[in-house]
Amino acid sequence: MARQTKASSQSPISELRPALRLQEQQRVPDGRFSLISPSPIICCIAGLTPDNNIVTSSIDNQCNVDTKTRKAILTSVILLLLSFQVLVLVILALFPYAPDPGLSSLNNNIYTFLAPLSTIFLLGLLYAWLIKLGTREARHHSRRFEKLVQFLSEPFRTLIPSVKTRSLSESARSFKILSHPRLLLAISLAVSLFLAIVPYRSDLNPTGSLIGIDSPLYVNWITQMLARPFPQALQYSFVEGLDGSRPLLLLILYAIAALGISPTQIIEYLPAVLAPLLSLSTFIFVRFGQGSPGLAGLTALFTPFSFYLTVGLWGGYYANMLALIFVFLFMTLLLTFSRSPSAPKYGLMFVLSVAIFLTHPWTWILTITACLVFAVSLWRETKHSVHLKSVTGIIIAGIALDLLKSTLFATRTVAADVATKLPTSGQAASFWNNLVDGLLYTHSGLLGNWIILALGLLAVFALRVKDRFERLVILWIGVASIPFLVLDSYSQTRILYDLPIPVLMSSVLLFFLPAISARNTRWPEIIIILVLVLCANYALQGILLL
After folding, report:
1. Neighbouring-strand partners of residue 48
2. Which are the contacts of 443, defined by CB distance < 8 A and separation ≥ 6?
3. What is the pLDDT of residues 193-244, one digit of tens each?
4. pLDDT digit string (tens) for 430-441?
5. Is residue 427 part of a domain?
6. Residue 220 near residue 290, CB atoms below 8 Å
7. Domain identity same for 469 and 404
8. Secondary structure element (H or E) that encloses residue 109, with its range
9. Strand, coil or helix: 48
10. Are 199 and 211 in contact (CB under 8 A)?
11. Alpha-helical regions (H) of 290-317
């Protein structure tokens, strides 16, 4: 008989003994660990109860209590911060009549202390497209880099897919505060008007001095034009007024002054006209370019709190403000034309392009370059050349207009003017110094708003190329980022001024709030109100310091 092995000699009963012992161990807790009870939070995460059974309703209730507690704490913190900011806003709005226990100074000190962060946020905002492109290529060619990205994105594994698939229109409809876009637009127009007239209040500016670096120049140009016959006044607007680069605005102001209104009074009330029109133009851009009324209303509400009004008043950049109004209308027509081309739309685009060129040539160059890249993307997407041909025709017309103006009035062409702004090797090497100087010192540091730039940074990372509206915004920023690298600090600030900042500010809230706030706060709308109040404090405090 063959010898039995040790394994084959075991009886069936002996094979069951380990299993029986395991069951006994599960029934009888080990005394060494009887004093240690698992945390309810860990049990919720692991799917176990403290006695190692599957999740029961009692632990579900404990998890719900923890979630409610977290929501209550975060909501309380947000409400506390909102209360502080509202108090600051009331103090600033009633300045100098409301007593200030030092809250506005504290708020300003916090803002100033965190202002250096704006340099990093601006770089991220401008070059997010480059970071995303580089990351995609690196993940494609490096398995190790792919694992690193997966590890770093692990804490956001639920947030990232949610943002990528988020519809801005659906997000806007989920917030009751955005259900009345016309009311939001009306509030935006009223706030724009209020902020524009604050610097000229008699109690704050008893002498009626003009606000803005370029304001006295405009008064002088209008006065010079009034002293000449119309043909010579027309020639003056194309030749003398800042080298003939703002003829359209000068002719409009000249026509108003010819009615008997003093040039000083015209310039004083000019911001009160341009500021509401800027809010209206951003509303139209989002409403008809993207399609969401709620997002359009929120964008209009952010417009007077962005750089457009504060920096525009500081510098007296009235031509730039008017050009931006034309730009948003032009971009609206470009998006609607991309969906359904027609001759009337193209005609209006052509007229607005000429208006931008005759108002602020630098803004025209930035705008038309972004539109050209957008048209190329449409051609690659649809294989139809109508969009590319249309934008090319507008560019050729602009170049012809520039040459005609230069020939008739013996002025420098836009191309020659751009050549004078080309950087030297020293400017390119001092990029960081230019960046810091432009944000924190030029325009009295009004551009160093870390809140606005942080919102913009998050927005550009969330924007998607597949959506044409979002693609246009990405290209708008991407085109501007290229010359930003090599220009001096002042020119860098003018590029930043031309970016669609209000669109970024409103978009980021609708991208992230539905994914974050529903799990962490009871009323997501209070975060929108908090951000609006924070930006309102920045705008009002900046204007009071003009």
Report:
1. 54
2. 311, 314, 315, 493
3. 999 999 999 999 999 999 999 999 999 999 999 999 999 999 999 998 788 8
4. 889 999 999 999
5. yes
6. no
7. yes
8. helix 103-114
9. strand
10. yes
11. 293-302, 307-315
